[in-house]
Amino acid sequence: MTSGTTESGREITGASIVLDGVEKHFRGQSEPAVAELDLEIAAGEVVAFVGPSGCGKTTTLKMINRLIEPTSGRILIDGRDVTGVNPDKLRQSIGYVIQSGGLFPHWTVERNVGAIPRILGWDKARIAERTEYLLELVGLDPAEYAHRLPKDMSGGQQQRVGVARALAADPPVLLMDEPFGAVDPITRVRLQDSLIEIHKELGKTIVVVTHDFEEATKLGDRVLILSKGGHIEQFATPAEILATPANEFVSEFIGSGATLAQLSLTRVKDTEYDPVTTARVGESSAAVVARARAQGHRWVVVVDSTGVPIAWPSLDEIGATDEVAGFVDNRLPVVAPSSTLHDALDQMLAASQGGALVAVSGGPLLGWVRIGTIIEVIRGQLGDAHADEASYVEFAEAEAENGGAS
Ligand SMILES: Nc1ncnc2c1ncn2[C@@H]1O[C@H](COP(=O)(O)OP(=O)(O)OP(=O)(O)O)[C@@H](O)[C@H]1O
């Protein structure tokens, strides 16, 4: 395992992955699914594989943990050739997450997460401690979820358990095959944000296969664009790919998604937040209104006992009852600092609000970001070179004027 720190000072616990002339020729097929692929992924890096259907993304991913045996070539993890290693042993050291979660439906969450540590012979106390840590890491309260069955959880929650399970034995590498492909768009954004947080915390090497170029630009430090036969068209940072597509294939592939992907290059944390007045359920409404007025705020954010925002009422709405009500607004636009500007705009427009609250998942409320702030950033990004995209800005501005919390 490689040690050291990233630019942000985080410890790298991931391992490098090298594919050296790797090829997969399925029996009965005239062409190889993946031909002579050379690829180097640095320790602690997140790499997203994208490309048209059938280009060999999944085959390449599954060769890394040898769920698919390469026909030829070498695969090195942390410098060690793993093509001759016992595949079961190898898979215990590489986390793997698939689209549907792949959980055992009749096992509790706790049992699912502890599956590999049990095979590795960990004692019960160590497994219990690790499970609790991991459930918290993926944003699930252990007290509430450890004893649940996957069938009694939402798709997004099951995916969180899938990630916890994949990380159970602290593998240096995490492979993910369309991990968020089967959940609704809002859950998808939250799961992406959680993955970014987890990566920041753990510094693993992550390889993620996705159909969605925008998701690739959001998650990947670098994006690998493949064409048929696992041919590399471009392997570069999202910004590089958008600024200088390597060839016509890449330009066409990113084509209509390019504008949205531009918005994905800037994160909410790169913009300015405005402060909010918060209120607790049951507090005196008059005191809350006075506090908000003193700050010049026309809205307050009601938070639950753990500090998680639950509603964003106006002062008139707050003043309608003596005490702050515990109403939970299920459409509340909340984004994480790692969310992209595109995620933030989506949330605002879906909620018909002129802003979105910024909160670390399950953590403190940091403030709110105005649609106007985002529009300014987009304007700067698009510049004059993309005058036609101005219509998107106008659309967003019109939405902002039509109402919401700005
Ligand atoms: N088990 C198999 N036997 C024979 N051919 C296979 C097998 N698995 C994949 N292939 C073929 O290999 C090629 C690459 O498939 P692969 O699943 O890796 O593509 P992909 O890029 O992940 O596609 P998608 O985005 O549709 O999942 C395809 O032509 C596919 O039909």
Automatic annotation (TrEMBL):
Keywords: ATP-binding, Nucleotide-binding, Transport. GO terms for molecular function: ATP binding. The keyword Glycosyltransferase does not apply. Residues 17-254 form the ABC transporter domain. InterPro entries: AAA+_ATPase, ABC_transporter-like_ATP-bd, ABC_transporter-like_CS, CBS_dom_sf, P-loop_NTPase. PANTHER family: OSMOPROTECTANT IMPORT ATP-BINDING PROTEIN OSMV. Belongs to the ABC transporter superfamily. This is Betaine/proline/choline family ABC transporter ATP-binding protein.
